[in-house]
Structures are given as structure tokens and as C-alpha cells.
């Protein structure tokens, strides 16, 4: 007889991982780090992220490759939320500020810059 399958609780959040290439210049990378240091990002940017359902976000660097982990509310619709975020106060100004540090086109949206990663492995449930 097969063991009864336990009911799994509903997830508390959805996780998205994204990547972005930055300019491979030590001075630009140092400046990009300073823009993202604790307390350096504009409060309106963090507030806008929370308003669209982003619960937590972390950005890591490996050389000039940025890697983002973004945890969101369970019912998060990524495309809809990114459109809503782009319309938030000061978001376009922030995107213009960070654009020179990013290896992308000047008119690219945040959604075009940050590429969603496909999860191919997960240990555990």
C-alpha cells in the first residue's frame, strides 16, 4: 500500500530570479554598488516595489553579472506588476540613473534589462 500523500501548504511567496549584465568597468561597478548600498536606493523605489507585490529583493554580483532574487506575493503576475512598477513615481528617473551602469540599450525597459531565469533544478519540495 502506498503511503498517503501529505497535503502541502500553499506557498507563502513566489520567487523570481533574474540576471543583468553590467558594464565591465571597475569604477562603474563600484558606483553601481554604492547606488544599491543599504539606505542608498530612493525610498519611492522600494515603496513602489512593495505596492506591486514584491516582498523581498536581493541583488548579487559576480564580476559584471548581476543576479536578482525577488520574492513576491503568491498571486503575483510578473508582467502586470512590471508594467505597474514602471508607472510608479520616480521609477523612470531611477531607471535613467542606473542605465549607464548596465550593458543594454538606453531605451530598454527594466523588464527588458533584467532577464528572467529558468529554474532547472530544485532540491526538496
Automatic annotation (TrEMBL):
InterPro entries: Carb_Metab_Mutarotase (IPR052996), Dimeric_a/b-barrel (IPR011008), Rham/fucose_mutarotase (IPR008000)
Pfam families from the UniProt entry: rhaM
Protein name: L-rhamnose mutarotase
Gene Ontology terms, MF aspect: racemase and epimerase activity, acting on carbohydrates and derivatives
UniProt organism field: Hymenobacter nivis
Amino acid at each position: 500500500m502506498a503511503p498517503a500523500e501529505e497535503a502541502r501548504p500553499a506557498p507563502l511567496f513566489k520567487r523570481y530570479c533574474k540576471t543583468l549584465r553590467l558594464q565591465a568597468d571597475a569604477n562603474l561597478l563600484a558606483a553601481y554598488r554604492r547606488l544599491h548600498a543599504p539606505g542608498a536606493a530612493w525610498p519611492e523605489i522600494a515603496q513602489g516595489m512593495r505596492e506591486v507585490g514584491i516582498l523581498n529583493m536581493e541583488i548579487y554580483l559576480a564580476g559584471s553579472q548581476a543576479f536578482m532574487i525577488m520574492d513576491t506575493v503568491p498571486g503575483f503576475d510578473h508582467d502586470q506588476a512590471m508594467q505597474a512598477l514602471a508607472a510608479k513615481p520616480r521609477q523612470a528617473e531611477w531607471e535613467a540613473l542606473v542605465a549607464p551602469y548596465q550593458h543594454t540599450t538606453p531605451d530598454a525597459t527594466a523588464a527588458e534589462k533584467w532577464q528572467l531565469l529558468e529554474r532547472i533544478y530544485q532540491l526538496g519540495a
